[in-house]
Task: structure prediction
Amino acid sequence: MTAASPFAPIEDDFEPYIDTSACPHCKGSGWLRLESPVGDQNFGKLVPCECTMAIKDRKAFEELKKTSNIELFRDLTFETFNPRVPKTREAYDTALKYAKDPSDWLLFIGNYGCGKTHLAAAIANEALNRHIRLYFAVVPDLLDYLRSTFDPNSEASYDQRFEMIRNVPLLILDDLGTENAKPWAREKLYQIINHRYNAKLPTVITTNNDLDSLDGRIRSRLYDRELCRTILLQADDYRLLDTSERARFRQNPVTRPKY
Result:
């Protein structure tokens, strides 16, 4: 392939390479012309250079981060989680393995401060780094996000947001059971969970509630052991540990399993 002229027409789907001197392949045009013989269907055809594709990939990843709703939790990763805290190692290993290849459902149950949200966010961040489309939401915030579409000034319709949440390749719901118990909220949440259950779409859920306190229709689906794996976190509230106790758990480097 040869470098295309900087004045060659540019397809709408791509943007030209900005630095006209940085790329040795296209000489800054952002495009390459296929070296095909006259008469070949590819003769004279322009294709994006690898530098253009790299820009496109970066932009796609930035858009992915924006739509994943994970920005406020970007510091909650597997690297910042401390599995030496008693009663957290199994949950950590399970979450890390799941993040490598999300499938089925994963349910974390435990009291406040035991690491549920951190592990759920770590799964989201790991999956995001692997360019897996996802949506992370605290359940009450998710319902507010849907309600906001009823505002006349909303930039998105209710149907658009609802369908995105129902069908996103990986959905992570934090704090199930803390939502408003009004009928509309219960019904919307059930519809989302039921759709993902029937479609077997990868889903991660955290809750500090006894499952018996949840909507019976949702509880029944979480009890399905063929689809949903339950991890019980019995660690003490990490937020209540003083500085010296936290330091004690950081003394040795954490060995991250390879999956």
